[in-house]
Amino acid sequence: MRENHRAVALSEYGDPDVLRVVEGQAPTPGEGEVRLAVRAAGVNPIDWKIRSGAAASFMPVEFPVVLGGDVAGVVDAVGPGVTEFAVGDEVLGAIGFGGYAEVAIVKAEMLTKKPASVPWELAAALPVAANTALHALAELHLEEGETIVIDGAAGGVGTVAVQLARHRGAHVIGTAREDNHAYLRSLGATPVVYGDGLADRIRSVSPHGVDAVLDASGRGSLPALIEVAGGPARVVTIADFSAAGLGVRMISAASEGAADRIAEAAALAAEGKLTVPIAATYPLEEAAEAHRVSEDGHVRGKLVILPDGKAE
Question: What local confidence, expressed as pLDDT, does residue 128 receive?
């Protein structure tokens, strides 16, 4: 059990270099909380949007703050009232904040047990992406035999959504750069290049049209996606803040039921039916570089921070 710990703290909005490693006393879990020795923490686009101030209007933070909503680790202390977890349990979850650290305090209800066969890096790559993807597919009421377009299909959420949609028996068209097309085919999706002319390219591979759309990229494709879907009714986005003006629902990873959704995804991962490629891993000291790579917007799969430099 650690007495002190290191974390990557954000004390002001700015470029990646505002992320600094700090040291402090390991916190004690309160009522309904557990303390995790973090083995791995996923990096998500919302992290750099918060860091840069781009998300300040709808997700303001109180400084200093430790980013990182994806976490996997070992329970090393439990607070009063916690009965579902014990010291030594391996867990994962979508925790909102606090993952970029050696130790994190987490509400027990946010966690689910990690299957032993799921590696730490994958366990940290799954929670936010799986929770978001499963929530989106539920909102779209996707059914077997339907066709869905997933825009930004090679990213973290896109990668998971493609596999989950295929697992449900849907046909998937995924947008990505051409150098990611072989990867999307390996996941069972039909790839198309994003950008100008997208609607025509989607029609060329799906002449009968499409039933649903998940925009996981937020890079301006919504008008074309609405066109091929025949309207905005079954179009959702997780990343395009112009959605409301187009009649499209913008959704976020719902906290209610998140642990159950993450447990479902973890079980599929344990069975070899769901995976996320790990694009790169970083120690705490290189969190700024992880943000630079994430902000570039061309990550295949997931970036992961390993607080101790290795997953163990």
Answer: 94
Considering only CA atoms, which of 67, 22, 25, 31 is closest in space to residue 46? 67
Angle (CA) 101 135 218, round 5°: 75
Distance (Å, whole) CA 29 – CA 106: 8
Partners of 10 in beta bridges: 19, 65
Mind listing the pLDDT tens digit for each residue in 86-98? 999 999 999 999 9
Within 13 Å, how many C-alpha atoms sit on residue 92's CB side? 31
Let me know: does 276 contact 159? Beta carbons within 8 Å.
Answer: yes
Beta strand 65-66 pairing with 70-78:
unpaired
Radius of gyration of the chain, Cα coordinates, nearest whole angstrom? 19
Amino acid code (one letter) for 176: A
Instruction: Tell me the C-alpha distance between 154 and 279, whole Å.
Output: 11
